[in-house]
Inverse folding.
């Protein structure tokens, strides 16, 4: 089967819970081989979209294309090439990690060699795999969930908030694992409400807010939007004095406190020039830093301008 440039694509995907509209005209484009970060605040519609992509919910309108084929027409064949981890993995708590994998492997008629392969892939040691799942930490449960999703050696992985509840080490390990899987040729769609999380691992990003896709593009394109909206924050003794002494350099500045100013960030050179001018004017610099807009700010901005779509 030839691999299309877009491994996953939706057209005009809409969904309602009863009469309540949840998703509006979602056109996702997930390139083959990408790590696609599906980003949005809680309640934006990420999980619902993923359920539609897995055929677990029926859309009110629109289509899902997986591997270039219509999901509605070839559900079973297409989903056999997809591994998913949606919310907490459902495990048999009294069985060991190994037995959990074996139960699913046999049920799905998958080759026996896969169990040790996926354990190795997700980094679960033989010792951990031999313990009952009820003794697992959240990170180990996520790994085992991922191992279960990887059993059929899927081309596409869909992971809903895979780092939720993990400690910082667990988050780093999960990130490394995702990169390793991408290196093995998998395409990964992962959702998160944390832009910092997505930024560290994704190659492509879709931003959803209130059921609408408000941005879609490569990571550099998203970062460009962010950078274009960064601020420069100056902490000094007297904001007003600085403004009076440097009316041109601080023409766009707003005073945010007795000794605090905020102005649009343009470049590193702007920071150097401002620092020099402040020193020359005899004004103390307690702090001078660029500040990215918050996730909420960026989302709000994206919604207002309806960027890129
Ligand atoms: N079973 C349901 N019945 C009615 N409304 C629902 C149901 N499940 C979700 N919703 C609503 O659909 C909207 C989208 O929810 P969804 O879970 O897809 O968002 P999300 O982006 O995944 O957020 P979260 O990370 O909080 O799960 C929310 O407003 C939610 O209240």
């Amino acid at each position: 089967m030839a691999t299309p440039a877009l491994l996953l694509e939706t057209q005009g995907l809409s969904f309602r819970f009863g009469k309540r509209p949840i998703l509006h005209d979602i056109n996702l484009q997930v390139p083959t081989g990408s790590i696609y970060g599906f980003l949005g605040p809680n309640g934006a519609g990420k999980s619902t979209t993923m359920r539609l992509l897995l055929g677990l919910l029926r859309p009110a309108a629109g289509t899902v294309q997986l591997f270039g084929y219509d999901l509605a027409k070839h559900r079973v064949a297409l989903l056999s090439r997809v591994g998913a981890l949606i919310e907490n993995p459902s495990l048999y708590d009294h069985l060991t990690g190994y037995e959990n994998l074996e139960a699913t492997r046999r049920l799905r008629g998958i080759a026996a060699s896969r169990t040790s392969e996926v354990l190795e892939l997700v980094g679960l040691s033989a010792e951990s795999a031999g313990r009952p799942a009820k003794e697992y930490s959240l990170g180990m449960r996520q790994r085992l969930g991922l191992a279960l999703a990887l059993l059929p050696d899927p081309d596409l992985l869909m992971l809903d908030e895979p780092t939720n509840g993990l400690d910082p080490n667990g988050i780093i390990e999960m990130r490394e694992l995702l990169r390793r899987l991408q290196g093995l040729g998998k395409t990964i769609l992962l959702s998160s409400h944390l832009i910092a999380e997505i930024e560290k691992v994704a190659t492509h990003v879709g931003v959803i807010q209130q059921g609408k896709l408000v941005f879609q593009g490569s990571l550099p394109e998203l970062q460009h939007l962010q950078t274009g909206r960064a601020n420069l924050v100056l902490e000094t003794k007297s904001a007003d004095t600085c403004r009076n002494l440097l009316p041109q350099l601080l023409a766009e500045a707003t005073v945010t406190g007795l000794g605090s100013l905020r102005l649009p960030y343009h470049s590193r050179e702007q920071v150097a020039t401002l620092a020099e001018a402040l020193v020359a004017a005899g004004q103390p610099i307690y702090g001078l830093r660029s500040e990215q807009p918050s996730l909420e700010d960026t989302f709000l901005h994206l919604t207002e301008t309806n960027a890129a779509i």
In short: The CA atoms of residues 34 and 53 lie 17 Å apart. The chain has two domains: 6-217, 231-291.
